Amino acid sequence: MAIKLEPKNPTLYDLRGTSKQYLKQYKSAIEDFNEIIEINPEDKRGYFNRGWAKKQLGYLNDAILDYNKAIELDSQDSRVYKYRGYAKSTLGDIKGAIEDFDKAIGINSKDPHSFYNRGLARQKLGNIKEACNDWNKAAKLGNDEAYDFIKKYCE
């Protein structure tokens, strides 16, 4: 991607890095998010987006570290808790994942993905009734994937 950026402008690095993520150029995107962090270590966008790119590459522990820093800088962004919860769940920290999905839902109770993923985590722990409640809420909020789990576990 041959875009010359204005030096010291984190917004432009964010735009380019995000564009690279859409193109699945995650390693190159991480370089742009590193620039944001170098320019302004207090800019949560760099940590959040770098964490997301690392998650896509399967570097889940590193992604969690970036999400932790993003939360330290802004504890009211539900997306960070949701993605950190997903990473924790994938690594087997189901209880930690549920705590993160709880926080995400506490901040944004209209996000179907947080309910859906919390349902998956609860199902892994054998809490089918609670999982079904989450999947029903996710479905009502527009998550079509939840219907498959409702049909399989809740009817």
UniProtKB/TrEMBL annotation:
<protein>
    <recommendedName>
        <fullName>Tetratricopeptide repeat protein</fullName>
    </recommendedName>
</protein>
<keyword id="KW-0802">TPR repeat</keyword>
<feature type="repeat" description="TPR">
    <location>
        <begin position="44"/>
        <end position="77"/>
    </location>
</feature>
<dbReference type="InterPro" id="IPR019734">
    <property type="entry name" value="TPR_rpt"/>
</dbReference>
<feature type="repeat" description="TPR">
    <location>
        <begin position="10"/>
        <end position="43"/>
    </location>
</feature>
<dbReference type="Pfam" id="PF13414">
    <property type="entry name" value="TPR_11"/>
</dbReference>
<dbReference type="InterPro" id="IPR050498">
    <property type="entry name" value="Ycf3"/>
</dbReference>
<dbReference type="InterPro" id="IPR011990">
    <property type="entry name" value="TPR-like_helical_dom_sf"/>
</dbReference>
<feature type="repeat" description="TPR">
    <location>
        <begin position="78"/>
        <end position="111"/>
    </location>
</feature>
<keyword id="KW-0677">Repeat</keyword>
<dbReference type="Pfam" id="PF13181">
    <property type="entry name" value="TPR_8"/>
</dbReference>
